[in-house]
Amino acid sequence: MQTNARFGCHQQIVTIDDIFFSYENKPVISGLNFSILERDFVGLVGSNGAGKTTLLKMIVGLLKPVRGEIRLFGQPIDQFRDWERVGYVPQKNALNPLFPATVREVVTSGLFGKKNMFRRLSKQERSKADDALYAMRIEDLADRRIGQLSGGQQQRVFLARALINNPELLILDEPTVGIDAETQAGFFRMIRHMHQHHHITFIMVTHDMDMIQSYLGEDSVQKSGGLSFYVKHTHEPENCRETDLTHSMQQLRETIEV
Ligand SMILES: Nc1ncnc2c1ncn2[C@@H]1O[C@H](COP(=O)(O)OP(=O)(O)OP(=O)(O)O)[C@@H](O)[C@H]1O
């Protein structure tokens, strides 16, 4: 386990300290330790039922470990309030296809967090939504019902929802399940671009070992608590410079082929 709060210029974004989790009496995660540094790309791999989604839900505060501690950006998770720094794209089957919201409504819901969803949007919030729709090339779908879209289109809607706050940490749970190979390849190109050029820290659950091997490298694996973490660090000194974390929406848009 890495216990130092920083490595070079990179602070710990997620610190998982000896956590345990059970659903009722069924243990799922036992003694898991792991740290994620600023601008890492972490591929989270494990067999079905190993607890990957459960871990992500703990990292975004939806579940609480029964023992141990998780810190986000150095703060214990129960004191953490800066949720706009974290974008989360849950597993695709988390969406009820009958959910009546439009694409624009789903994307803007990313602004609210635990705040009131029914207030009027400010001009600035509407413009953030327009930027995220534009970046994901879904502005023409803005008024369509989310349940009527293809899997690849829905995936871009949920990514736009996660990007609307310009997050520093992006958490993706099996984002390419049920999507054709070509769309998947385009998606990974976009994710790599975001990692390399927008300096976002990523945690992505995937069963796609080709993606893991090509981008993260087979040898980058660390194991803990029954899960495998493939990690690509970006610790080169030039990455220690302060960078403008604002997304260039135009640049991002250009990585997407539709
Ligand atoms: N709400 C729940 N109540 C009880 N058990 C649950 C609940 N959610 C998940 N589980 C069980 O906990 C275990 C871990 O589930 P989890 O979804 O975290 O696994 P996973 O590694 O993401 O699996 P997969 O690769 O299939 O998505 C599984 O055995 C699952 O059946």
TrEMBL record:
Assigned keywords, A-Z: ATP-binding, Nucleotide-binding, Transport
SUPFAM superfamilies reported in the protein's UniProt record: P-loop containing nucleoside triphosphate hydrolases
InterPro entries according to UniProt: AAA+_ATPase, ABC_transporter-like_ATP-bd, ABC_transporter-like_CS, Metal_Ion_Import_ABC, P-loop_NTPase
Domain (ABC transporter): residue spans on this chain: 14-249
UniProt entry tagged with the keyword Repressor: no
Keyword Transport: yes
SMART domains named in the record: AAA (SM00382)
Protein name: ABC transporter
Organism: Paenibacillus tyrfis
Phylogenetic classification of the source organism: Bacteria, Bacillati, Bacillota, Bacilli, Bacillales
